[in-house]
Structures are given as C-alpha cells and as structure tokens.
Design brief:
With 215 residues, the chain is α+β, with helices and mostly antiparallel strands. The protein is 19% helix and 34% strand. The chain has helices spanning 22-31, 68-73, 115-129, 142-146, 206-209; strands at 18-19, 34-41, 44-51, 53-55, 58-64, 77-90, 98-109, 111-112, 148-154, 157-163, 181-184. The strands form two sheets. Strands 1, 2, 3, 6, 7, 10 and 11 form a seven-stranded antiparallel β-sheet that branches. It is globular, with a radius of gyration of 21 Å.
C-alpha cells in the first residue's frame, strides 16, 4: 500500500530519497517512539516532543489533559515527525557533508480517543516497547485516566525520507588527499539501573533484561 503524493508531501529535491509505501513508513514509526508534534496556538506555530506509537493505520500520542499542546491539537490539523540519525557523512568539502537518516512526516487531523478506549491504547503503548509489561503494573486509577488525554491520527497523508551510503563529492574532489566516509551512529540500551527503593528479592522481568533497542 502507498500513500498518495500530495503538494505537502512531494519532495522538491532528492526525489530518490522519498518513500510513500506504508511498509517503509511503518518500519520507521515502529523503530523510534520519540516524535515531535507541530500545531498552532493563537496563530503561532509550536512543536512539542513526545512519544508516539502505531496501531495498524493510526498513530497515537498522549499527554496531560491540561496541556496546551494537547488542548490545541484536539480536532485540529497537526504535523507529526519521527527522525532517526544513522550516521554522519564526511565528505571532501564542507558543502557535501551530510547525514544518513530515516524520517517520517505525517499530516492529519488529531482526534480524541474516547474514555472507554483510553486504557487499552495506553497499555498498547507500554506493551509496544516492553511486551507483557502492562499486565504486571498497578492498574491506572480513575483520576490518572481523567488527567490523561490520548490523541490519535489516521495515517493517510505523509512520506518517509531516507538517506544512506557514502558522500557524493564533486568529481575533481576525489583526487584530494582528504579522508571521506561515514561515522555510523546507533542507540543502545545500557545495563539496567535498579531503583534503590525496589523491594528485596524483586528481580527485573525478561522484558527488561532481554530488552534491545530496535532503531
């Protein structure tokens, strides 16, 4: 399945880096929970970092019900972006330095997840990162759920942009004695750091000890 190319999603330059197929878009959304949501308050643009998660044909994010960002996004047009930095591309000239990246930009109207579906969406968010964890946690209280708003957006308009590979230098620059190539970058999960207030004998479950960063 491919998303339709629109004036907002069509790449003006480096067309070969654009991807509109859902498989590529979904893989980037699923690999990086950190996102930025752009919205407008009183005619001024704002961008707020938060976590997103995908379920089928929708992306979701949540925040405090009192948040200006959440209140301004309800039923409004928003832009959600996800970016993954894979490497620095070191060229033979400053102008040709670049970065290997994977990113997604989505446009749409944010909707409020109904109260009766809110807890299921939040559990899906937690289990998407650490499968099986939601069932092990204390249930959310009525007040906690009331204080939290979950927003969603259908994936109907957007694109992915991917840059991979080596630097692309001017032909004459390849004869210069300057090292060029790529500095690969990756995010890794480090050793667990237990809370000093853990009860004696409480050991971390497998979904934490076996956790590996997916990006």
């Amino acid at each position: 399945m491919k998303l339709e190319i629109t004036p907002r999603t069509r790449l003006r330059r480096s067309h070969e880096r654009g991807h509109f197929d859902r498989a590529t878009i979904d893989s980037i959304l699923d690999a990086q929970p950190m996102c930025s949501v752009g919205y407008v308050i009183d005619g001024l643009p704002y961008v707020t970092p938060t976590f997103q998660w995908r379920e089928g044909n929708h992306v979701y994010w949540h925040g405090s019900s009192a948040s200006r960002a959440i209140r301004a996004s309800k039923g409004a047009e928003v832009c959600l972006t996800v970016s993954i930095l894979d490497g620095f591309v070191m060229a033979r000239s400053g102008m040709h330095h670049s970065a290997n990246t994977r990113s997604v930009m989505l446009f749409g109207t944010a909707f409020v997840v109904p109260d009766e579906d809110k807890e299921a969406r939040l559990s899906a968010f937690i289990d998407g990162l650490w499968p099986g964890r939601a069932a092990q946690l204390r249930p959310n209280t009525t007040q906690e759920l009331k204080a939290t708003t979950v927003l969603g957006m259908e994936i109907t308009e957007g694109s992915a942009k991917i840059r991979t590979g080596m630097p692309v230098d001017d032909d004459e620059d390849y004869a210069l004695p300057i090292w060029a190539g790529v500095i690969p970058l990756e995010t890794r999960a480090g050793p667990l750091q237990p809370d000093p207030q853990n009860l004696p004998g409480v050991e971390p479950p497998a979904h934490l000890t076996d956790y590996r960063w997916k990006a």
